[in-house]
Design brief:
The complex is a heterodimer. Chain A is α+β, with helices and mostly antiparallel strands. Chain A has three helices and seven strands; from the N terminus they run ααββαβββββ. Chain A has a single domain, classed as OB fold (Dihydrolipoamide Acetyltransferase, E2P) (Beta Barrel), CATH 2.40.50. In chain A, a hairpin with a 6-residue loop joins β6 and β7 (136-148). The longest helix of chain A has 22 residues, at 3-24. The two termini of chain A are 21 Å apart. Residues 1-24 of chain A have low confidence and may be disordered. Chain B is α/β, with parallel strands linked by helices. Chain B folds into three domains: 23-116, Immunoglobulin-like, CATH 2.60.40; 125-431, Alkaline Phosphatase, subunit A (3-Layer(aba) Sandwich), CATH 3.40.720.10; 433-540, no CATH class. Chain B is built from 15 helices and 30 strands. A ten-stranded mixed β-sheet of chain B has the order 16-17-15-14-18-10-19-29-13-30, sandwiched between helices. In chain B, strands 2-9-8-4-5 form a five-stranded mixed β-sheet. In chain B, strands 1-3-7-6 form a four-stranded antiparallel β-sheet, with no helix packed on it. The chains are: A alpha+beta, B alpha/beta. The interface between A and B is large, with 43 and 57 residues.
Chain lengths: 150, 605
């Protein structure tokens, strides 16, 4: 395999698994991290028309489950790429700005953190502070079903 | 990137329940600091002590008389069974040795401080360059890639290679031989050692990050005592540890919302960097604030010109009316030189108009030099460290080349003026070395077979660099074999990461494990880490940092020096001692003989 192809191959495997799950479920359209924002600028980001149009509706998105704040919290952070650092654990690490906060139906399954996951649930937009942790989010998926992609 | 912090805090808490508080005095024993500089004085007793039994003296005199005010007595600090005495915002005007004794009637503690003055002002301006995490191998590799080498001789030198004065800098902190960028920068900008993650404070037993005893920062000192301008420039987030060291006071560098507020209040005149997310109110998409404060508009309201692209920065700097400039070019850390100039990876596609550190330095100098009283400018090449951490040496080396270009801009500015001290130094180091070359043409099936050492290494075949010193490709058939000595589990690919910045390890459960993303890369080899499994990336080392300097005052740099002595040289060069005039010296043509005298006197400290 040529060197430049191996990363693409890794992504293709993940996407294949995702496609299988998505096809098995007929609810709601897919949304990708690339489609979330229309513009990403120094002075803020603008949600895309597609994202805004899906507010309150069922969506599916593929990303990486970042390490949770602590086992008992009710959400995890979904990121575009694997998070090498745990911003909750390290005082000098920081979240990327385009995270999605996921509130799963089932709170279990934290042990698979760091792996790519497919998430399906209701898209919620707008600034919100998590009551338990004070964590601020702008894009959320609630009542989510989460499947690990291997 | 210090996963041990939480653990050590937990251990500290566990111990607290079992043993009595230890006593302490801040500033700590053997502190040496500038006469007239401000600090918070704190005495921590190891038990609850009635106030009438406390006696604290400074050279035998009651502290109230020495400091001119009584402190706040705290019977049970933060609910503990221990009392404290805190006196905020005091100073000692007279240089000399001070013995501080504190007693609760039964037990005594004592510390000794050395308080120094300064000579007359020797320079109008000081420019402090920080190569964050820049290790010797970064410099050497930057010279090889940007200047070339054959038959043992380089074809040129980095801009800071030929500076006349050099010193080895000790970077350790109060709490550990290993420092981070917060307390190492704090040492340069306050003259006091501190602890990991702390900025402008001694780490005491206070629970509130903002209640630890403060020490005055260089920005505060300059703004309190002079009418000079201050510039803070970085390619990392402007709230990150190194730039924050110029002005901030907090026990935790992660308090970036608070640090943004402290930046606003600091009075700094030129502020250029990444990290705009902390300037935006919470409701703005992309904000990392938890309040409604809009610092973009606040800065504009107090007269700052705003720039968000390279072109806007250059235009604002060229305007002779601009004396206050806020340039924010990325919501997070800016992209490094390899991604911006060659690979177009990282976030370069989203933020194609980020300026180069050399241009940021030029813009800052254009604006700051409009102040007739002179200026202090700090320029950080912060991404050298951000790429040394994830073992991505090519990116760290391109940023070292960029630092060389930025320093050249400062040298061109200083030229023959003989009124500007330029210092170039890392804040700490990484465990990285060049061990030879990797030659794809060598026989063998494993990549380690292709590593040449000693005479087998020869020389790499990087292409001729462009006019800025950057080779147009790093993916060459015979490249440097440059490895890190302290690392988590990761897959070594023996090649540059053309696909984007390296992410060596990812978190699984409580541990960091090798990132499987690289497992199938041709020739990839799993290296089992030699750091604790809680380590996410490579870590800082205690190896000395190499400082170089040029200009008036630079003569004081020699041999081995503690990082706090860099502050001493800066304030001595600017004559910031209490009894000195702080006006710019005139005329500014210091003859060579006078410079030698200055060197002799400064070297005594």
């Amino acid at each position: 395999m040529q060197r430049r192809d191996w990363l693409l191959a890794t992504i293709a495997v993940a996407t294949g698994a995702m496609a299988e799950w998505v096809l098995a479920d007929d609810a709601g359209p897919n949304l990708s991290f690339q489609e979330l924002y229309q513009t990403r600028g120094v002075l803020g980001m603008t949600l895309s028309e597609k994202t805004r149009s899906l507010s309150g509706r069922q969506v599916r998105i593929l990303g990486y489950m970042a390490p949770p704040l602590k086992p008992e919290v009710s959400f995890f952070v979904l990121t575009r790429a694997p998070v090498a650092l745990c911003p909750f654990c390290n005082s000098d690490a920081d979240w990327p700005s385009d995270i999605v906060v996921v509130y799963p139906k089932d709170r279990g399954g934290w042990s698979q953190d760091g792996l790519p996951v497919a998430v399906a649930g209701t898209l919620e937009l707008g600034s919100k502070v998590d009551r338990e942790t004070g964590f601020v989010s702008l894009v959320r998926i609630v009542d989510a079903e989460v499947k690990t992609i291997r | 990137m210090r996963p041990y912090v939480a653990l050590s805090s937990a251990l500290a808490c566990a111990c607290f329940a079992l043993v009595a508080e230890a006593g302490a005095i801040y500033p700590i024993d053997r502190a040496d600091f500038l006469a007239g500089s401000r600090f918070d004085f704190k005495v921590e007793f190891d038990s609850v002590v009635p106030s009438d039994r406390i006696r604290v003296t400074v050279n035998g005199t009651d502290y109230v008389q020495t400091f001119g005010k009584a402190g706040q007595y705290v019977p049970n600090e933060d609910g503990t069974n221990a009392s404290s005495l805190i006196v905020r915002d005091v100073s000692l005007a007279k240089p000399g040795r001070y013995l501080i004794e504190a007693t609760d009637g039964e037990r005594s503690q004592r510390v000794v401080w050395d308080v120094y003055g300064t000579g007359p002002r020797k320079a109008k301006n000081v420019i402090l360059f920080i190569g964050d995490g820049m290790s010797v191998a970064n410099r050497t590799a930057a010279r090889i890639l940007s200047k070339g080498i054959s038959e043992g001789k380089y074809y040129g030198a980095l801009s800071f290679d030929d500076m006349p004065h050099m010193a080895l800098i000790g970077t350790s902190g109060v709490d550990s031989i290993i420092t981070d960028s917060a307390n190492s920068m704090s040492a340069y900008t306050t003259g006091h050692k501190s602890s990991v993650n702390a900025l402008g404070v001694y780490v005491s037993r206070a629970k509130d990050n903002l209640q630890h005893p403060k020490v005055e920062t260089l920005t505060e000192l300059i703004k309190r005592k002079t009418r000079m301008a201050v510039g803070i420039v970085t390619d990392a987030e402007i709230e990150d540890a190194t730039p924050a060291g110029m002005f901030a006071h907090t026990r935790r560098r992660a308090d970036k919302e608070i640090i943004t507020e402290q930046l606003f209040l600091s009075g700094a005149d030129v502020i250029l960097g990444g990290g705009s997310a902390y300037f935006l109110p919470q409701a703005t998409a992309g904000s990392k604030r938890k309040d409604t404060n809009d610092y973009i508009s606040l800065f504009q309201r107090v007269g700052f010109k705003l720039a968000t692209t390279d072109a806007e920065m250059k235009s604002a700097a060229a305007n002779p009316q601009t004396t206050k400039l806020l340039g924010l070019f990325h919501p997070e850390n800016m992209d490094g030189a390899l991604d911006r100039h060659v690979l177009k990876k990282g976030t370069v596609p989203q933020f194609p108009d980020q300026p180069d550190l050399a241009d940021m330095t030029r813009a800052a100098l254009d604006v700051l030099s409009r102040n007739k009283e002179g200026f202090v400018l700090m320029v950080e090449a912060g991404i050298i460290d951000k790429f040394n951490h994830p073992l991505d040496w090519e990116r760290s080396v391109y940023d070292t080349i960029m630092l060389s270009n930025a320093v050249q801009v400062a040298k061109d500015f200083a030229g023959k003026r003989n009124d500007t001290l330029i210092i170039v130094t890392p804040d700490h180091t990484h465990g990285v070395s060049i061990v030879g070359t990797i030659d794809d043409g060598k026989p063998g099936t494993e990549m380690r077979d292709k590593i040449g050492v000693y005479s087998e290494a020869g020389f790499p075949n990087y292409p001729k660099p462009d006019s800025d010193g950057y080779p147009p490709s790093v993916d060459v058939s015979k490249r440097l074999a440059m490895f890190y000595g302290n690392f988590p589990d990761y897959y070594e690919t023996f090649r540059p990461h053309l696909e984007g910045p390296n992410v060596p390890a990812v978190k699984k459960g409580n541990d960091y494990v090798a990132n499987e993303q690289y497992k199938s890369a041709p020739g990839a080899t799993l290296r089992i880490g030699n750091l604790p499994r809680a380590a996410d990336t490579g870590t800082h080392t205690a190896d000395d940092a190499i400082l170089t300097a040029i200009g008036p005052g630079s003569e004081a740099f020699h041999g081995f020096m503690e990082n706090v002595e860099v502050f001493h040289v800066i304030v001595d060069t600017l004559g910031l001692g209490p009894e000195r005039s702080v006006k710019a010296p005139a005329p500014l043509r210091a003859p060579a003989k006078a410079k030698e005298k200055v060197a002799a006197s400064a070297a005594e400290h």
